[in-house]
Amino acid sequence: xxxxxxxxxxxxxxxxxxxxxxxxxxxxxxxxxxxxxxxxxxxxxxxxxxxxxxxxxxxxxxxxxxxxxxxxxxxxxxxxxxxxxxxxxxxxxxxxxxxxxxxxxxxxxxxxxxxxxxxxxxxxxxxxxxxxxxxxxxxxxxxxxxxxxxxxxxxxxxxxxxxxxxxxxxxxxxxxxxxxxxxxxxxxxxxxxxxxxxxxxxxxxxxxxxxxxxxxxxxxxxxxxxxxxxxxxxxxxxxxxxxxxxxxxxxxxxxxxxxxxxxxxxxxxxxxxxxxxxxxxxxxxxxxxxxxxxxxxxxxxxxxxxxxxxxxxxxxxxxxxxxxxxxxxxxxxxxxxxxxxxxxxxxxxxxxxxxxxxxxxxxxxxxxxxxxxxxxxxxxxxxxxxxxxxxxxxxxxxxxxxxxxxxxxxxxxxxxxxxxxxxxxxxxxxxxxxxxxxxxxxxxxxxxxxxxxxxxxxxxxxxxxxxxxxxxxxxxxxxxxxxxxxxxxxxxxxxxxxxxxxxxxxxxxxxxxxxxxxxxxxxxxxxxxxxxxxxxxxxxxxxxxxxxxxxxxxxxxxxxxxxxxxxxxxxxx
Length: 573
Known about the structure:
The protein is mostly beta strands. It contains six helices and 38 strands. Strand 11 and strand 12 form a beta hairpin. The protein is globular and about 80 Å long. The model is unreliable at 280-291 and 365-392 (pLDDT under 50).
């Protein structure tokens, strides 16, 4: 929980009038406009897990989205707001009140509702974590050096020092005391592995920094009485973490259990976590029993077992913006045959001057058989149904330019076709290392379907200077197929550039299927495309022969925008 004074909490619980204020910054980070309650209408935010919000799991990453309507400020321009930032704070009226920060969000596509109002949608800094980790980082690495690398690659800071993280983990995290031995593809995946190793959750805090915390680690456990709730939809079972396990490369499975029986809790498998694979000081290599798996698993289990028992479900009540992800609250009023029930907060939907929804993750559909009941239903028959949502994201692969300069003419670095199953907000994340050859301005541009969305200007990169540029651009896309393109110009060399498109219900689009009737060909060679699709996918075979050669001028007379080449193609003339 966000710590506030006893006077503030009394005012909040008494139903005192709520207040809100905010600050909007432009894409360059400069303060653009201060907002008061007169300007802010219907603000609300959501905080939940990015992968399986209904299924509890250690090491999950939580993200926040926000929407708000800004009124009475016709001078606000959409072009200035896009890619900027909004910060909101909450208070109540009365002596002893204070301002509570609600969060920091990056503005996506603003929508002009009328001359005097703009609706802003925004997402927190989790979007900046989808930066790929350079391949040269593979191999041995320590926990504390990985913290520094994530900060460098993403431009984000960790809210806790390494000393504070050691106190959280109950062990040393520097040097050879904690390290990994395999490469994670992105900073997001790395952060989740680190959170697993700590037995914690990972999220972006109210200041926009990366933070870890233990589940149920709030010093004050508030009680939400039945009279304060609008709705309670709870499972007829209780849940707890009772075991963690790891299966190593030698096939041996090591499991740590609590004293509780198997049908009263969840068993969580951590086999993919490379931080657990750590040799004893006197052993270079060998089977799993020579490694300190058990000690690491015991520390993780201790952290999770301390959470105790909770009841999954969802409640709506009067609202408390001081609550955080991972908080434990008590529900009173006779639920599931008990006088009180403990409720672990793993999702929050908050509205200003409206009801607040709290979500508590359960076992998920596939784990019901391992969950006991705290009600009269018995077993897991009263568990109900759970829908598991998965965030789908794809990587945007860009060309590597070595130490060659780009040039003053715009040059396309790479592109990606994505298919959106429904209207979505995606985030395009680009990270590049620029190496100055001669002092000059450099630009990176992101386009959607040929329309420029944003430009990053690296004012001047001096000769022999290296500068890491991180560009995170939220975009609103309609359903259908879209082309994301990255262009650049300038005198600097691009030593390394990576990119990702992150969003739910999206997939890489690899072209429209075509048949032999769409081509003229001979043997294993494509001679001419005569189909109608502007994004064709060449079939694996034509006339019974595997396609090995794409002939010169095969698409010269067509209007194609892109073409998907089959895996067996060996030559493009």
